[in-house]
Write the structure tokens for this entry.
Amino acid sequence: MRDSVEPLTKYERSRKKMVETQIRARGITEARLLAAMERVPRHLFVSEAFSEKAYGDHPLPIGEGQTISQPYMVATMIDALDLQGEERVLEIGTGSGYQAAVLAELSAQVFTIERIPSLGTRARELLENLGYTNIAFRIGDGTIGWREASPFDAILVSAAAPKIPKALTEQLADGGRLAIPIGGSLSQVLKQVTRRGEALETRTVCGCVFVPLIGRDGWP
Ligand code: SAM
């Protein structure tokens, strides 16, 4: 545990500021989520060239034409899942692994799928080195979900789809929540879908811009 008189490091100060000015100030107040985002060292999930910019109010490149999402968007999506701590969570689009780390802080078990092998492998090495033991990794097409591990209490898709992939709602537990950006290539809306028996309750959370979800039930 931190000695209370020990000064915060530069990155700890940046994280505190990020949470206060970008997340809490915009209305996200869930204490466990804010604390998790204050803990996860986001600067380690980008290349050294970007580590000074890691706590800025924007997405950043992570290679292969992909991005680590803006901190506020990470918080908004996770907030829409309403995690209490005991959930099994499926994430589509591991990317840098940052959002998987925040999810792992807030739930019992995370299953994360990435279609680009170099990204998936790098994220896995980093998350294992950071000591996360509750994340399972897969390289492949996340639009078909992870049937053997289903049902999931929450599913987060961090790439934009033309429509909600059917496999994902089928793999959602009753009462489970799905957060997914839906729309065209230039902009989308973040949808929160709650499963109630065979019915799906859908609400629009906010506008957003994501890289495309590419796969069988995504973009070609
Ligand atoms: N959550 C990530 C993070 O914290 O860094 C950011 C994800 S990035 C915005 C979207 C990711 O989704 C990219 O890494 C992309 O390769 C991946 N992706 C796109 N289509 C996919 C699919 N069908 N299955 C799995 N991953 C996919």
Notes: The CA atoms of residues 4 and 12 lie 14 Å apart. The longest strand covers residues 172-183.
